[in-house]
Each structure stands twice: as structure tokens, then as C-alpha cells.
Design goal:
250 residues, mainly alpha, 8 helices, 68% helix
Length: 250
């Protein structure tokens, strides 16, 4: 029997990335509101409804309101390019189908969280907790199906240890609980690749956040004392470690 090639997987991932970008845009639009405000369903400019279905099934294919043509999310092409390139890279390097499915789920929800965090410095429970539940379920299935008990143990250690580390930072240095809940998923994915991957992902995540904050500060896009979005660094570092591990194991 002929098995699908990495090229075939990557081609499918490109299509999936393009389609799921509409869901990502919808989630960013819904959740990019200030604390204590209701989730957004109408255009902030013309107030006409844009989300008419259940939020989990919402889909916005464009960066502009179809009624007033004003921008309502990340610039055109940014989300789409992020999803397509990331999913294609994962499909090219990750050979385990269940792990690939887990990473695609992680990418889809993670990108939505990244753009939401950049917009309003929030990581909603409505995204972080289901993300962890689905990724944990898929990886547990992988452990049972392919007999990967070692990877399952380090993944669990990664989830507990990483979220505990962020909880300690929140209690001692301040910060949001969203990072703690996101760390459940990032720690889980990092731990799947071993204890060294957990450390590498944590260090790289903080390094990426520091680099991004420095660049924004130097370009005048960030004021001293302003909140810094850490989800981009956390998600990017986790995907970078997964891609590196996948490439090394091919």
C-alpha cells in the first residue's frame, strides 16, 4: 500500500490552513474586547451583526466588515499566511498522524490566542481550556495507540511544571492567569518531546517576548510600563521546538 508523502500532507495542510483562518479571524474578532465587556458579535464601526451562529462555529473570511468595509481584525493575508505556512511546515516534518493532528489543533487555537493577546492582552478561558482538553485527549490517544508511555509522562510533567512555573510568576511578579492556562497546552506539547524540550521552549518563549518588546519599544509602538503580550512568544517557541524535533526525527 502506498502511503501519503510529506508533499501530499503539506498540500492538504495548506488547504486546511486557508479554511481554518476564517475560524481564527472569527475568534479574534469575538474575544478582542476589554474585560467585563460582552463578547463581540457586531461591527464596532457600523454596529451591524457579523456573528450570527454559535461562537464556536463562527467564521469570518475577511479582514473588513462586509457592510461598511472598515477593518475589523488583523490585516488581510496575515492570519491566512500564518496558518498556511505553519500547518504546511508541520505536515512536512511531523510523521506521527495523531501528533500532527494535535499540533494542528494547537496551531489553530494558538494563533487565535496570539492575535487576541496582541489586540487586548487577554487569553480567554473559552479558548485556552478547550485547547488543553483537546490536545490532551489526542496525545493520550497517541500514547495508548502507539505505546508511547515515556512521551506521555514527560508531556504530563511539562503541563504541570510549566503551568506551575507561570503560576509562581503570577503570584510573585504579577501577571495574568491566561498565561498559566495557556502554559498547560504549551507545556504538554513541549513535554511530549522530552524534558530538554520543556526548558528550551520556556527559554525561547521568554527570549522571543523580550526581543518583540524591545523592537516595539525602539519603534515607539510600546510605552514603558505597558502590558506585554507573552502568548506570541509561548506559542511560537512551542511550534519551533515541535518543528525542530520533527525534522530531527525524520
Amino acid at each position: 500500500m502506498t502511503h501519503p508523502t510529506p508533499i501530499a500532507f503539506a498540500a492538504v495542510a495548506v488547504v486546511v490552513g486557508g479554511i481554518t483562518a476564517g475560524w481564527v479571524r472569527a475568534q479574534v474578532f469575538i474575544h478582542s474586547v476589554d474585560p467585563h465587556q460582552a463578547w463581540r458579535t457586531t461591527c464596532p464601526h457600523c454596529t451591524l451583526p457579523l456573528i450570527t451562529s454559535h461562537h464556536a462555529r463562527a467564521w469570518l473570511p475577511h479582514a473588513r466588515c462586509p457592510h461598511c468595509r472598515r477593518q475589523i481584525g488583523p490585516p488581510t493575508g496575515v492570519v491566512e499566511a500564518t496558518m498556511i505556512l505553519t500547518m504546511a511546515a508541520l505536515a512536512w516534518t511531523v510523521t506521527d498522524p495523531l501528533l500532527l493532528a494535535t499540533l494542528l489543533v494547537f496551531t489553530t487555537t494558538g494563533v487565535a490566542l496570539v492575535f487576541t493577546d496582541l489586540a487586548v492582552h487577554r487569553l480567554p478561558d473559552r479558548l485556552t481550556l478547550p485547547m488543553f482538553a483537546v490536545t490532551a485527549t489526542l496525545l493520550t490517544t497517541d500514547v495508548v495507540t502507539h505505546h508511547h508511555p515515556g512521551a506521555g509522562v514527560t508531556a504530563l510533567a511539562g503541563a504541570v511544571g510549566t503551568s506551575g512555573f507561570y503560576l509562581l510568576l503570577t503570584l510573585t511578579a504579577g501577571g495574568g492567569g491566561g498565561d498559566v492556562k495557556l502554559a498547560l497546552s504549551t507545556g504538554l506539547m513541549l513535554g511530549w518531546h522530552g524534558y530538554l524540550a520543556i526548558v528550551a521552549g520556556l527559554v525561547l518563549g521568554f527570549a522571543l517576548t523580550a526581543i518583540g518588546a524591545t523592537w516595539r519599544l525602539l519603534t515607539g509602538r510600546l510605552s514603558r510600563g505597558e502590558d506585554i503580550a507573552h502568548a506570541p512568544g509561548m506559542v511560537t517557541a512551542t511550534l519551533a521546538v515541535a518543528l525542530t524535533a520533527g525534522y530531527a526525527s525524520r
